[in-house]
């Protein structure tokens, strides 16, 4: 059970498990979950906007857990399979361009659009502002820049 959770729009759940585990979890195929420390978010029926400070250990745990959801590859959840999924998570976090982008900055901005389903991020603040304008995200959802 979570310390705190909140059902958001578009099949997302905000989960707070302590200082570094504050994440946006998706239950929709193809829609990314945002692990690490989500420090602020807002949402309505069409969008979720979020500010995140990535935490490697939290991504490692989250990606490993998601990998173990593939029951063809990890059918028994044995210690050996858990170790294999953690090695795969390490490899992904180290070599995948998306994860490299996540860890390139101390602060990331995310924009989740529900129709059509798309996740924009990780973004710098200036990229985030451009996407907010381009997608006509309501002003009351827009987040201000995090102090560096």
Reconstruct the topology from this structure:
Elements: E1 4-7, E2 12-16, E3 22-26, E4 37-43, E5 47-53, H1 56-67, H2 79-95, H3 97-102, E6 108-113, E7 118-123, H4 125-134
Antiparallel strand pairs: 1-2, 2-3, 4-5, 5-6, 6-7
Helix pairs in contact: 1-2
Strand content: 25-35%
Tell me the number of strands. 7
Order of helices and strands: EEEEEHHHEEH
The residue-averaged pLDDT reads 92
Tell me roughly what share of residues is in helical segments.
Answer: 25-40%
Largest sheet descriptor:
4 strands, antiparallel
Category by helix and strand content: alpha+beta
Low-confidence stretches: none
Global outline: globular
Q: Provide the spatial order of strands within the biggest beta sheet.
A: 4-5-6-7
Q: Report the total helices.
A: 4
What is the terminal-to-terminal distance? 33 Å
Determine Rg (CA atoms, Å): 16 Å
Descriptive overview:
With 148 residues, this protein is an alpha+beta fold. The chain has helices at 56-67, 79-95, 97-102, 125-134, and strands spanning 4-7, 12-16, 22-26, 37-43, 47-53, 108-113, 118-123. Strand 4 and strand 5 form a beta hairpin. Helix 1 crosses helix 2 (79-95). The chain starts with a strand and ends in a 14-residue tail after the last helix. The mean pLDDT is 92.
């Amino acid at each position: 059970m979570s310390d705190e959770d909140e059902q958001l729009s578009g099949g997302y759940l905000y989960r707070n498990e302590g200082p570094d585990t504050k994440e946006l979890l998706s239950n929709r195929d193809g829609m990314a979950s945002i692990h690490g420390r989500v420090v602020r978010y807002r949402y309505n029926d069409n969008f979720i906007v979020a500010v995140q400070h990535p935490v490697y250990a939290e991504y490692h745990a989250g990606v490993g857990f998601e990998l173990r959801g593939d029951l063809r590859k990890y059918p028994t959840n044995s210690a050996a399979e858990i170790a294999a999924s953690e090695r795969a998570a390490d490899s992904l976090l180290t070599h995948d361009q998306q994860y490299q982008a996540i860890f390139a900055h101390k602060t990331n901005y995310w924009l989740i659009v529900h129709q059509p389903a798309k996740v924009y991020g990780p973004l710098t603040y200036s990229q985030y502002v451009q996407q907010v304008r381009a997608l006509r995200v309501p002003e009351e959802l827009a987040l201000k820049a995090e102090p560096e």
